[in-house]
Amino acid sequence: MLWLRPRSGPPIKKKSKNRTLRYIIHGWSALGKTLVRARRLRDLLTFLVAWFFLSDAIATVSGTSILFAKTSLGMAPASLAMINIVVMLSGVAGLYCGTEARNVQT
Q1: C-alpha dihedral sign at 96, 97, 100, 102
Q2: 24-60 as b/e, with b when 16 or more CB fall inside 10 Å?
Q3: What is the DSSP secondary-structure string of 30-80?
Q4: What is the Cα–Cα distance from 34 to 1, expressed in whole angstroms?
Q5: Of 17, 20, 70, 97, which alpha carbon lies 20 to 30 A from 31's?
Q6: What is the DSSP letter of 72?
Q7: For the whole prediction, is pTM greater than 0.70?
């Protein structure tokens, strides 16, 4: 935090004497305001919810595959990194192929 440039925009309201706490409060309140605005934009809200589930699914599958490869298979760190990359690419390819198959059927 010490090396960050000053934030642009209006000054943050001083609800607390602690600067770090002020930034945290400001960040969460800005997120809340954004979600209130997003509720009016249905397409944006649908995209954000879908993106949350997609990113969570990819992170879960990636983490689980690495955990399994490390504990059960005893793989080396270099192999674990390669598994992470392969799992991510396979997930994206599967998502793309599933979307294309759905578009062909409709």
Answers
A1: negative
A2: eeeeeeeeeeeeeebeeeeeeeeeeeeeeeeeeeeee
A3: HHHHHHHHHHH-HHHHHHHHHHHHHHHHHHHHHHHHHHHHHHTS---HHHH
A4: 24
A5: 17
A6: T
A7: no
